[in-house]
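pls design
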């Protein structure tokens, strides 16, 4: 018969193994589609297909709030057309480039070369780098160029530099003749408006909107998303899609998919450290504090049963930079 210390070590070992399982969990490992996600996919696919079948180098401006799912969308689209390695060439159907934080012609050219796998990113003049970009775009058979974080063009301290970079990019796109999707926060539209040729190229705009909860259709979609997410969770949970809890989730996330993932991922970690792993209202309240609003007042923590169910967009609150949030009973005249 094992002694008490052996039994305790065995229990502890099982506990550590279970905890490790929860540490490896993330909602982000699953691509969960929703209406706006599917519409964004359709828009990107249309520009891509027109480039292949009609040789039209179209453009799409895809904007959305931080956390709306833009990066997940473009990465999922890119991964659906994987890079293929051949003895003499590498094919890159979808090229995703990250705009540098303070873009210049030099560092944007280097970012494109890096995404193309150029081993000599830092070598050569700007003109030489530009020529290598054209050569590699052809050699890699790039079918669609996606430029992410496009709002950084607006963040440049010097407007003259931003204009210079925009003009250089316009020239590259005119010569490359491949379709392009530029992605960023809503202020990215300013970059397009300040350049007449870019404005013509990117006249098509898609706004990846957050979820809404003020219509029956919006509530149904949001609650359906929560129900789908719950199916992947490795611990027992209260029903996320229950009407009252779904409303609290909506307030806690401002309708943004990234914040849903933040809260649920943190809730799984908290529950996984318990002897009886389970997500309840208390765990969700703690997860909200840990992942969204540190030291949130109890009366404003949406998962506190006594909390006032209102948008958290006043000064000092998590979503103060966002507009008004429409809740059930609100009028459509309010600004979203």
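designed seq:
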């Amino acid at each position: 018969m094992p002694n008490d210390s052996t039994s305790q070590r065995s229990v502890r070992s099982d506990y550590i193994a279970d905890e490790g399982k929860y540490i490896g969990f993330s909602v982000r490992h699953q691509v969960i589609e929703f209406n706006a996600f599917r519409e964004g996919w359709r828009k990107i696919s249309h520009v891509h297909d027109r480039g292949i079948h009609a040789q039209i180098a179209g453009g799409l401006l895809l904007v959305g709030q931080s956390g709306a799912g833009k990066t997940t969308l473009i990465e999922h689209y890119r991964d659906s057309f994987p890079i293929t390695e051949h003895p003499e060439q590498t094919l890159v159907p979808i090229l995703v480039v990250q705009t540098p934080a303070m873009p210049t012609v030099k560092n944007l050219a280097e970012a494109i070369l890096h995404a193309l796998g150029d081993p000599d990113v830092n070598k050569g003049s700007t003109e030489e780098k530009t020529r290598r970009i054209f050569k590699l775009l052809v050699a890699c058979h790039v079918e669609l160029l996606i430029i992410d974080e496009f709002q950084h063009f607006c963040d440049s301290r010097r407007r003259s530099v931003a204009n210079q970079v925009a003009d250089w990019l316009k020239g590259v796109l005119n010569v490359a003749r491949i379709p392009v999707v530029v992605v960023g926060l809503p202020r990215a539209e300013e970059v397009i408006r300040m350049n007449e040729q870019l404005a013509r190229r990117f006249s098509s705009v898609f706004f990846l909107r957050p979820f809404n909860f003020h219509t029956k259709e919006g509530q149904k979609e949001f609650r359906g998303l929560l129900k789908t997410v719950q199916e992947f969770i490795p611990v027992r949970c209260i029903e996320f899609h229950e009407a009252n809890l779904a409303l609290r989730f909506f307030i806690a996330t401002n309708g943004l998919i990234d914040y849903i993932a933040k809260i649920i991922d943190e809730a799984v970690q908290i529950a996984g450290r318990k002897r009886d792993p389970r997500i309840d209202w208390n765990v969700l309240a703690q997860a909200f504090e840990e992942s969204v609003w540190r030291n949130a007042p109890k009366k404003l923590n949406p998962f506190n049963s006594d909390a006032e169910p209102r948008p958290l967009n006043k000064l000092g609150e998590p979503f103060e930079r966002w507009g008004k949030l429409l809740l059930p009973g609100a009028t459509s005249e309010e600004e979203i």
